[in-house]
Amino acid sequence: MLKYVLKRILSALVTIFFIITITFFLMKAIPGNPFAAEKMPNPEIEAAMMAKYGLDKPVWQQFIMYVGNVFQGDLGVSTQYKRPVVDIIAESFPYSFELGIRALIFAAVMGVLLGIVAAVKRGTAWDTGSMLIAMVGVSVPSFIVGALLQYFFSVKLFQWTGMRLFPVTGWTTEMSKLLPAFALSFGTLASISRLMRSSTLDVLSSDYVKTAKAKGLSQAKIIWRHVVRNAIMPIVTVLGPQAAAILTGAFVVEKIFGIPGMGRFFVNSINSRDYTLIAGTTLFYGAFLVLANLVVDLLYGVIDPRIRLSGRKE
What is the pLDDT of residue 37? Predict the structure, then answer.
């Protein structure tokens, strides 16, 4: 078990280092600099600012300095906001985290219910409708879903009823949090519903379910006591990676709905070539995703010893 844990931790650390490296050099490949001539008409001021942030040094020296600072917990100072990147992340991430948790809960609950209904009502309009929703969710990006929700539930609904039930933007009231959470959850909801439908169909054809039917148990008792308990296991398996993905995939949704989360800072940092903020937010999200997958891997090893055994054979 110890060897399995150490192997997964080492793999996570190597992955994080590659994230740091790739992000840094891709960031440097962006044309221009944060103090380009259109922002700093005076070349001397531009040169002074470049020297202040260490951007006048060779790229390899900048990389070594950056890696050393990262391992000390220093992600640098934003050239746009003139604040430490760590402070920006600490201030904005709670909004992104709340949005992600709301989206994850909605996706898990509705995805499981849609999958069960589609499997139980296989071949009916319920099945067709559920899978149509799943197909749309997989195909349509979250920012398109968000824009459509804003148009119909914020703009058109206000025109029809005269009541502003759902604000177009903002993150202040419970009603203002519904649309962005649904927009972010739609793709994950679709994936979970398809997986739940397939898993439920497999369980429905098992021998113990046939035995329960032969004993005269009602369909509701069979579904909730026997089918759901076993069919939901694949969903639990994918919730770890799905949770990490949904918690780190809200950039554009936050921008569309004006949520003061990390997505706004990330998008603005790219537009302004804020190197330190680009690298800091990318590294944070990447490390968060890697650590979430690490936790899932370790839990797999605890739940299923066969995974640890296969790891020793590799």
Answer: 45
